[in-house]
Amino acid sequence: MSDWVHFDRWQDCAQMERPGFVFEVKNKEGQSLLTACTVPLQLPFDWKSPPAFFRLVEAPKPRHSTPVPKPQT
Hints:
Strand order of the largest sheet: 1-4-2-3
Mean pLDDT: 92
Number of strands: 4
Shape: elongated
Strand content: 25-35%
Number of domains: 1
Helix content: under 10%
Largest sheet: 4 strands, antiparallel
Low-confidence stretches: none
Number of helices: 1
Distance between the termini: 51 Å
Structural class: mainly beta
């Protein structure tokens, strides 16, 4: 993981991207989200304050979903 960067530098996120990593964005209330570099950043509807900091973190490992049940005949 990298150090926290002030959100004022978000427009530079494309230069910080790395394969296998995503950005963790956090607001002052402690809410956080994982995202790719998208400018402008789309915030979740339930965030009560704007983003404050971001950092590069390892992308979560993919998970297998539950298999879809076979159709009933």
